[in-house]
Design goal:
Layout lengths: L4 E3 L7 E2 L4 E2 L4 E8 L4 E2 L4 E11 L4 E2 L4 E3 L13 E3 L4 E2 L4 E3 L2 E2 L4 E2 L4 E2 L4 E2 L4 E2 L4 E2 L4 E2 L3 E4 L4 E5 L2 H27 L2
Parallel strand pairs: 1-4, 2-4, 3-5, 4-6, 5-7, 6-8, 6-9, 7-10, 8-11, 9-12, 10-13, 11-14, 12-15, 13-16, 14-17, 15-18, 16-19
Antiparallel strand pairs: 19-20
Length: 184
Amino acid sequence: MTKPLIMPFNGKTPRIHETAFIAPGCKIIGDVEIGPDSSIWYNCVIRADVNFIRIGARSNIQDGTVIHCDSATPATPNGNPTIIGDDVLVGHMVMLHGATLEDRAFVGLSTTVMDGCVIEGDAMLAAGATLTPNKRIPSGQLWAGSPAKYMRDLPEQAIAGMRMGVAHYVENAKAHKTAIDDLG
């Protein structure tokens, strides 16, 4: 089993809370911070070599996701870090680049979220969508397509389901950690 690679870069070492789950095969590089009870699933790459990446508490980054950030340019003198709040669901095989996912945001599997984008809390980007630079998905909305566009408001039942998903991933990560520990 391939252990995670936790690698310092340019004097910045990833800071990972002791209760976070980091699955085998992950690569976490540079100025990264991962909060309590968050989970980084198998074969994710989180590379903060040109800016910083922050992942809050109880958020999950599912298998095969790539997270990067954007360096400074004349148009963006501070660049675009990637900031993921608390209780965020990030589906399998997602590409996040210099974006902000506020608390309780949901990003479906195989999506792309580009520089300067913001997905507000209780908002959802549907599976397979591409959110082009500097777009904002307001709270309570579902966006889909490539490029992504507003589809409809989310019913309370869908928002409640996203919150249940967060709790499920916190517990599932504990079970995976135990199974890996049992392997020795």
